[in-house]
Write a structure and sequence with these properties.
Helices cover 58% and strands 15% of the residues. With 314 residues, the protein is of the alpha+beta class. The protein has 2 domains: 3-200, Roll (Endonuclease I-creI); 223-313, no CATH class. A hairpin with a 2-residue loop joins strand 5 (106-107) and strand 6. The longest helix is centred in the C-terminal third of the chain and has 52 residues, at 202-253.
């Protein structure tokens, strides 16, 4: 089972504390994966999902809150896929009109998917709505790969309302278009953790946090290793250039050409080409610091460059 499926399974088991939150969650479910239509006797609604837990959750909610009569059908998906498709339909004679008016999708004889802000005013109702929208039309990428959570909706106005709810709750929800759908998404790991906490997916939250800790540790180790490798490479290159300059001076001007202080550093560098500046400084008598060694080696390089320049002019 995927990480996203585990989150949805946990959220489907979550029980709201109040009827108004149940209504908000139903609205989120219908807006994400429901179909509104007029039947022979009036408005009807059908929710379609491949997730059995989502179908069961919706069925229980509308039975408990509205005592609505439901028709449940299960079919095989097309294109030889093994997934089952669960469809929970409520017709006008079964209480669909009462249900749809309560969630704000049937008003003045018109059916329209929208977010009824009057029914979703409180923070708890916003969280309930987002819970319903996520389990029916959301997804979460395995955090081992990346941090990406999204809500998919065919209606741009509903998607904009979802993004507004996320921002109201302090989360950075953004919208993009994908084919004929509006996608509201979160990409920061911290935002996703906060949302899972708000929705009530505390077990999944801990699993995600464990992944984040391991990834952060791995990234820190990689940064340290890369930094050390870069420093070693830099030191090796500098040592090679310094050794080349010292040998050039010795070959062209003789080993005693350099002043005593520079000659001591040059001899130490030739003796230990892999040594750091600090280690070279400790070899001298008296010893000197890194900056002193670096200064003397720069002077040696300047002398070598000066000799090369004169040779070119000659």
């Amino acid at each position: 089972m995927s990480f996203s499926s585990n989150v949805k399974k946990e959220l489907c088991a979550f029980e709201n504390q109040a009827r108004h939150c149940d209504i908000a969650e139903i609205a989120g479910l219908i807006n994400a994966c429901g179909t509104l239509f007029f039947g022979a006797d009036g408005p009807s609604v059908s929710v379609r999902t491949e997730n059995a837990a989502v179908a069961k959750k919706y069925f229980k909610l509308i039975k408990r809150v509205f005592k609505a009569k439901c028709e449940l059908t299960v079919t095989r998906a097309r294109n030889f896929r093994k997934n089952r498709i669960y469809r929970v339909a409520t017709y006008s004679e079964g209480g669909a009109d009462k249900l749809l008016m309560a969630v704000g999708l049937f008003e003045n004889g018109q059916l329209k998917k929208r977010v009824n802000h009057t029914a979703i005013k409180s923070d708890c109702c916003k969280r309930a709505y987002l819970r319903g929208a996520f389990i029916s039309g959301g997804s979460l990428v395995n955090p081992e790969k990346s941090y990406h959570l999204e809500f998919i909706n065919s209606d741009g106005e509903v998607a904009a309302a979802v993004a507004d709810m996320l921002r109201f709750l302090g989360l950075n929800g953004k919208i993009t278009l994908r084919k004929n759908h509006s996608v509201v998404y979160l990409k920061e790991g911290e935002n996703i953790v906060d949302l899972l906490n708000m929705l009530g997916a505390h077990i999944s939250l801990m699993d995600l946090e464990n992944v984040r800790i391991v990834k952060d540790m791995r990234n820190n180790v990689n940064r340290i290793v890369n930094c050390e490798a870069a420093n070693i490479f830099k030191t090796a290159n500098a040592s090679a250039r310094q050794t080349e300059d010292i040998k050039f001076i010795a070959e062209t001007k003789g080993v005693d050409f350099l002043p005593k202080r520079l000659g001591e550093v040059a001899a130490a560098r030739l003796k230990s080409p892999e040594a750091s500046l600090k280690e070279i400084g400790a070899m001298l008598n008296p010893s000197i610091g890194k900056s002193g060694v670096n200064h003397r080696l720069r002077k040696i390089s300047q002398i070598a460059d000066s000799i090369r320049g004169r040779h070119l002019n000659d």
